[in-house]
Amino acid sequence: MSKTQAFKTESQKLLHLMTHSIYTQKEIFLRELISNASDAIDKRHFLSLTDEKVPSDTYQIKITADKEKRTLTITDNGIGFTEEELIQNLGTIAQSGSKAFIEKLDQNDTNIIGQFGVGFYSAFMVSDKVEVRTRSPFSPEGFIWSSDGVSEFTVDLFEKDSIGTEITLYLKEDIEDEEGNESFSEYLETYELRSLIKKYSDYVRYPIYLSEDLEKPVNQMTPLWQRSKADITEEALNGFYKHQFNDFEDPMKVIHMSVEGMLTFNSLLFIPKKPAYNFYSETYEKGLQLYSKGVFIQDKNKDLIGDHFKFVKGVVDSSDLSLNISRELLQQDRQLKKIASSIEKKIKSELQNWLENDRDKYIEFYDTYKTSLKYGIYQNFGLHKELLQDLILFKTNLSDDYISFKEYLDRKKTDQKDIYYATGKSKQAILNLPQMGILKEKGFEVLLLTEEVDEFMIQVMGTYNEVPFKSIQSADLDLVDEDKKKDIEKKSESNKSLLEAMKEALGDKVKEVRLSKRLKDAPVCLVSGEGLSLEMEKVLKNVPN
Ligand code: ADP
Ligand code: MG
Fold first, then answer.
1. Looking at ligand 1, which residue's alpha carbon is closest to its atom 14?
2. Which parts of the chain register pLDDT below 50?
3. Residue 30 CA to chain centroid, in angstroms?
4. How is residue 389 annotated by DSSP?
5. Residue 202: what pLDDT?
6. DSSP designation for 213
7. Residue 509 has what pLDDT?
8. Using one digit for the tens of pLDDT, what is the confidence trace for 508-524?
9. Whose Cα sits closest to atom 5 in ligand 1?
């Protein structure tokens, strides 16, 4: 009673895409099949609790390679398929919305395949033929489904006693031609299979065995981040971090998030003690590892973390992200954005907490990553100003310790209208500025900006808590009381010809020569007009100092 049927149009499209895209992540087929096996066991386990037709079992997933036959077989004792289910679930893309998804696939590059999984059909990326032998507890007979993944599939009766599914892949021949090599034989090698299972399916809840060793499961099964905080030792966390992110040192900080409610996810976030070797170069890739219900999806998801916190490493596991191809990408994006925003708030509050309660620790962090935070404020026209401004610290003319903007305002003189800052190559260079004299006399605190990004950041900020920033190197710095001003005006009038002569002598080198209101000990100083300071102009013109 062999029945041959055509795949539904959508399925044919997806199959075509699978077999014809030169797809670099072929290896994800194993992840997909293991994840299906795990889902099927979930279903059986769940039903066995309520339905007496469904017996429970010792659940497991087994993987067997046969080099001679070039087959790879994935066996599970999950729920299995009835005949209708075989036709329905493997002949069509059952879920609604899948059509829209495939249309998106057509327009976009195929990278999203690797990100969100495409399920069963990915087997055809590596196989010429696939056979599914299966038995459902709801059917008295077993069945075999078979297809070359082009346009048709066949379903036949098949004698199978045990409940569950066995999927056999007939691997494609290796290709060696001018266009390069493509190997499929590697999926028959135990070490390769082991490493793929470790990489993608380590945290699948059921044991995965390779047929060579039925004693010891390849996967670790419970992900660290799904365990409760109290059950995880610091050692385990540090070990996990070092293993997962290839670091030799323990992390500077670990943040464990477990969020439930409208949005459900677990996350382990780490701040490395030292930035990655390429942290400041373009080759550095930010991102968090993304899992869905313990199944690895993506190594560096960039949407989960903003550039300003790009030093953070970690994993995010959410049950709200489905591996279904049926889900629309937009939906995925929305969930990811919500998770990202929750993570961002958490990192901010942890850092803030350090800043307020463990200043030494915060300064260790700040000295390592301050440039990222400052760029974070500068980027996107200050979009993240509110988020980040209270994490910024500067040293000042009055203090060798870092202070925050808030602390600056808390202790500023009552008659002081602005937040003063000065830029220079080093702290000493700034302290030597001639303008410093009068500020010192008045006891005004001046933020010392020594990094290139500092002034760009301040310019983008404009104000802090509505108090404007003011460069002591700008021409309109006005610190003098009225009497002194009148005095200077008078002197300027009586010395007009001298000032004009000086301007003439200096020519185009200066815009104007005038008597200064700001000098204390130094006889002369250069100031810049509105806008950029001299230091910033130097940066922009790239003039070596
Ligand atoms: P998804 O897993 O996203 O639903 P897949 O293409 O991976 O989509 O699988 C299609 C359907 O086939 C699944 O929804 C499931 O009903 C069924 N299925 C796949 N693999 C198995 C299996 N090992 N045991 C039982 N059912 C399976
Ligand atoms: Mg699936």
1. 89
2. 22, 95-98, 109, 111, 114-116, 323-330, 543-545
3. 25
4. G
5. 83
6. B
7. 74
8. 777 777 766 655 555 66
9. 119
What does the pLDDT read at residue 539?
58
pLDDT in tens, 204-232: 889 999 999 999 999 988 888 988 888 88
- H/E element, 142: strand 142-147
Query: Would you say the CB of residue 434 lies under 6 angstroms from ligand 1?
Result: no
Question: What gap in Å lies between CA 130 and CA 149, rounded to an integer?
Answer: 8
Q: What are residue 227's phi and psi, to 5 degrees?
A: -85, 155
Label residues 523-541 b or e (16+ Cβ within 10 Å = b).
eeeebbeeebbbbbebbee
Kindly report, residue by residue over 333-344, the tens digit of the pLDDT: 778 889 999 999
Query: 484 C-alpha vs ligand 2 centroid, how far in Å?
Result: 80
Measure 274 CA to ligand 1 centroid, in angstroms. Answer: 44
Q: Count Cβ atoms below 10 Å from residue 42 Cβ, excluding itself.
A: 16
Residue of 158, 154, 167 whose CA lies nearest to 139: 158
Q: Is the pTM of this model over 0.80?
A: no
The alpha carbon dihedral of 383, 386, 387, 393 has a sign of positive
With a pLDDT cut of 70, the percent of the chain lying above it is 85
Q: What is the ipTM of this complex?
A: 0.99
- Residues less than 5 Å from ion ligand 2, measured at CB: 36, 119
Residue 318: CB within 6 Å of ligand 1?
A: no
Q: Which of 59, 75, 89, 134 to mutate to test the pocket of ligand 1 (most atoms within 8 A of CB)?
A: 89
Which positions ≥6 away from 435 have C-beta within 8 Å?
A: 422, 472, 473, 477, 518, 519, 525, 527
Side chain identity at 211, as an amino acid letter? S
Quick one: tokens of 366? Answer: 């700040």
| C-beta of residue 296 within 8 angstroms of C-beta of residue 288 | no
Residue 290: CB atoms within 10 Å: 24
Pairing relationship of beta strands 265-271 and 313-318 according to DSSP bridges: antiparallel
Residue type, 304: L
Amino acid 479: pLDDT: 65
Encoded tokens for 355: 């800043």
The per-residue DSSP string of 42-102 comes to: HHHHHHHTT-TTS------EEEEEETTTTEEEEEE-S----HHHHHHHHHS--STTHHHHH
Handedness of CA 172, 177, 178, 183 (dihedral sign): positive
Check if 163 has its Cβ closer than 6 Å to any atom of ligand 1: no
Going from the C-alpha of 2 to that of each of 120, 132, 144, 145, 169, the distances in angstroms are 22, 14, 10, 10, 20
The whole-number pLDDT of residue 98 equals 47
Integer-rounded Cα Rg, in Å, for the chain is 33
Output the pLDDT for position 28.
82
Q: Is 136 helix (H, G, I), strand (E, B) or coil?
A: coil
Q: Which residue has the tokens 């220079």?
A: 424
